C-alpha cells in the first residue's frame, strides 16, 4: 500500500532525536510555521527503516506494510536527508568488527551450528585435539596457576576447565552461540561458578571485567583459516596484559604439490550426471560445463598418503602474539617446489600445525598426513588442468587467500613448471568444500575409557579418528606406534570385529591401542 503525501500541502518535518531513534512528524497546512498544521503521518526512523531517495525532492519510506512517498517543496528535504545520513553513520559506528566483516545470514548459520551439543561432541571426541590442549595447559601449569584466563569461543567450556585444573584463579569463558547456556550448566554442576564466569556474546562486543594473563582458544577451521575465527582470537588481545600469553601461540600452514589421478577423474566424474540428454525427458547437458566449474571450485576435505606428495612442503607462519586482524584479510603465499618425482601434478595439498609455547614446554598439534587424523583432516585444491613435471624441475607460483563476508576465503592458485612454461591454477571457495570422507560411515567404538587425568571419554575420544583414517593409515600408525597414548597405553580386553561399509577392522584380544 502506498500513500502519496504531497499535492496542495507544504511539508514540514519536526524531528525529535533520541539516541539511535529519530521521530518525524509530517505536518500539513498553510500556517505550518505557526505550529497549527494538521499531522498527516507520524513515523520513526531507525537504522532498520527502509528508505530511499527518489529524484531530487522525494523520499520513499516503508514502515511496516505501509509505504509513504514524501515530496518536499522546501529546503527541509536537505535537512531530512542529512538526518538520515546521521542515522546511517551512527549505525556504522555501533557495528562491531565482527558485524562489519560478516553477513547476517552467515553469522546466524554459524552460531546455530555451534550451538548444537552434537557439534560440540564431535570436537570433544577428537582425542588428538582435546588431549593436546589439556597436555599443553597442564604441562605449563606455572603459566596458569593463580592467573586470570580468557577463553575465546569457549563452546562447552572444556578449555576453561583445563585452565582451572592447572590452577587458574579465574576464567572468563566468552561464547556467542546458544551453547553458552550449556556451558553455564556444566560450570554449575561442577561447582565452579565462583571461578568460571561465562560471558554470552561475541568477543568483539562483550566487556571483560579485567585484563587477563592468558588467552586460550580453539579458533581453527578447515585449512586453518576457514570460519575466520582467528581474527576474533587476535581481537581478544585487547584484554591481554603486557607480556601475557596465548595458547595456541603460533601456527604453520603447509602446502605441497600432489599427484592423484584417481581423485582427479573421480572429481571430474561427479559432473557426469549433467551429461544426461534425457533425464525424465529433459536434456541436462547444457549445464555440464557449469557443473564442472562449480565442482572444481570446491576444496576437497579428506586424507591421503604421504607418498602422493611430489615435493617438500612450503610453510607460512602466523604468530598470534604479533599478527593483526588486517593481516588475515588478504594473504599471499609464494612457493617454489623442487620436484622429487616425475608425473602429473594435480593440485596442492594443505595442512597445518599449531604450537603452544609455554614457559616450561612447547606442545605441537599437527594435522599433517603423517600424523594421526583429526576432525580437520587435510585439504586438497585441484588444478583446472594437471601439469606434467620431471624430477629436479621446479613448480613455482602463489596462493592467495582473500577473506569474504561469509566467514571464509576465496582461494586463487597460480602455478607454472618453470622449465616447460606450462601453467595452470584454479579459483576455489573455501566456504563450500567437498567432504570426500562422507561416503565412509563414521563410527566410534564403545567401552574403552581414556586414562587422561580428569577427563573420561569413550574410545571415540581416545582415538579421535574415523574409521576412514584407520583404513588409510593403519599400517603407518602401527609402524609409528601412534596407537599408543603418550600418557598411557590402552588394551583391548575382548576380541572385536567391526564391519562398517567397506572398512573391516579386526582387533584381537590384547591388541595395544
Tell me the quaternary state.
Answer: single chain
Radius of gyration over alpha carbons?
29 Å
What is the number of beta strands?
25
Q: Could you say which structural class the secondary elements and strand pairing correspond to?
A: alpha+beta
The first-level CATH class name of the largest domain: Mainly Beta
CATH architecture of the largest domain: Distorted Sandwich
* CATH homology group of the largest domain: Hnrnp arginine n-methyltransferase1
Overall tally of structural domains? 4
Treating each run of at least 4 consecutive H or I residues as one helix, how many helices?
A: 12
Look at the structure and give the mean pLDDT: 81
The helical percent reads 10-25%
The end-to-end span amounts to 70 Å
Uncertain stretches of 5 or more adjacent residues: 1-23, 27-35, 439-513
Overall geometry: globular
CATH topology of the largest domain: Hnrnp arginine n-methyltransferase1
What characterizes the major β-sheet? 7 strands, mixed
* Strand portion: 25-35%
Catalytic activity: L-arginyl-[protein] + 2 S-adenosyl-L-methionine = N(omega),N(omega)-dimethyl-L-arginyl-[protein] + 2 S-adenosyl-L-homocysteine + 2 H(+)
Protein name: Histone-arginine methyltransferase CARM1
Pfam family, one: CARM1
Subcellular location: Cytoplasm; Nucleus
Amino acid at each position: 500500500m502506498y500513500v502519496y503525501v504531497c499535492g496542495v500541502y507544504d511539508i514540514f518535518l519536526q524531528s525529535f532525536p533520541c539516541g539511535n531513534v529519530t521521530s518525524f512528524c509530517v505536518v500539513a497546512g498553510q500556517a505550518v510555521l505557526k505550529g497549527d498544521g494538521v499531522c498527516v503521518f507520524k513515523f520513526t526512523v531507525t537504522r532498520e527503516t527502509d528508505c530511499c531517495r527518489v529524484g531530487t525532492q522525494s523520499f520513499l519510506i516503508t514502515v511496516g506494510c505501509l509505504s509513504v512517498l514524501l515530496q518536499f517543496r522546501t529546503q527541509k528535504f536537505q535537512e531530512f536527508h542529512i538526518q538520515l545520513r546521521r542515522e546511517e553513520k551512527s549505525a556504522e559506528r555501533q557495528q562491531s568488527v565482527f558485524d562489519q566483516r560478516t553477513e547476517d545470514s552467515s553469522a546466524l548459520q554459524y552460531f546455530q551450528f555451534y550451538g548444537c551439543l552434537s557439534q560440540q561432541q564431535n570436537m570433544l571426541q577428537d582425542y588428538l585435539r582435546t588431549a593436546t590442549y589439556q597436555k599443553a595447559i597442564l604441562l605449563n601449569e606455572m603459566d596458569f596457576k593463580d592467573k586470570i584466563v580468557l577463553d575465546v569461543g569457549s563452546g562447552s567450556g572444556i578449555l576453561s576447565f583445563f585452565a582451572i585444573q592447572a590452577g587458574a584463579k579465574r576464567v572468563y569463558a566468552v561464547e556467542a552461540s546458544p551453547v553458552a547456556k550449556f556451558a553455564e550448566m556444566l560450570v554449575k554442576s561442577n561447582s565452579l561458578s565462583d571461578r568460571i564466569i561465562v560471558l554470552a556474546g561475541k568477543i568483539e562486543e562483550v566487556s571483560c571485567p579485567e585484563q587477563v594473563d592468558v588467552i586460550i582458544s580453539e579458533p581453527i577451521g578447515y585449512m586453518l583459516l576457514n570460519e575466520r575465527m582467528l581474527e576474533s582470537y587476535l581481537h581478544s588481545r585487547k584484554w591481554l596484559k603486557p607480556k601475557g600469553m596465548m595458547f595456541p601461540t603460533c601456527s604453520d600452514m603447509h602446502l605441497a604439490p600432489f599427484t592423484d589421478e584417481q581423485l582427479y577423474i573421480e572429481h571430474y566424474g561427479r559432473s557426469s550426471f549433467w551429461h544426461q540428454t534425457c533425464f525424465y525427458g529433459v536434456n541436462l547437458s547444457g549445464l555440464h560445463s557449469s557443473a564442472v566449474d562449480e565442482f572444481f571450485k570446491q576444496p576437497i576435505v579428506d586424507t591421503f598418503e604421504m607418498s602422493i606428495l611430489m615435493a617438500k612442503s612450503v610453510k607460512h607462519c602466523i604468530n598470534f602474539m604479533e599478527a593483526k586482524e588486517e593481516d588475515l584479510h588478504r594473504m599471499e603465499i609464494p612457493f617454489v617446489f623442487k620436484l622429487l618425482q616425475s608425473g602429473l601434478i594435480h593440485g596442492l595439498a594443505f595442512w597445518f600445525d599449531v604450537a603452544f609455547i609455554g614457559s616450561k614446554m612447547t606442545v605441537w598439534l599437527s594435522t599433517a598426513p603423517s600424523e594421526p587424523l583429526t576432525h580437520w583432516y587435510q585439504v586438497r585444491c585441484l588444478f583446472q588442468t594437471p601439469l606434467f613435471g620431471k624430477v629436479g624441475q621446479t613448480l613455482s607460483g602463489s596462493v592467495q587467500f582473500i577473506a569474504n563476508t561469509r566467514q571464509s576465503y576465496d582461494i586463487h592458485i597460480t602455478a607454472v613448471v618453470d622449465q616447460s612454461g606450462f601453467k595452470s591454477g584454479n579459483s576455489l571457495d573455501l566456504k563450500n568444500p567437498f567432504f570426500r570422507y562422507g561416503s565412509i560411515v563414521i563410527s566410534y567404538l564403545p567401552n574403552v575409557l581414556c586414562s587422561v587425568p580428569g577427563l573420561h571419554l569413550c574410545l571415540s575420544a581416545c582415538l579421535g579418528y574415523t574409521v576412514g583414517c584407520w583404513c588409510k593409515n593403519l599400517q603407518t600408525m602401527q609402524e609409528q606406534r601412534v596407537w599408543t597414548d603418550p600418557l598411557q597405553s590402552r588394551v583391548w580386553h575382548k576380541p572385536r570385529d567391526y564391519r562398517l561399509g567397506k572398512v573391516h577392522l579386526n582387533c584381537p584380544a590384547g591388541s595395544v591401542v
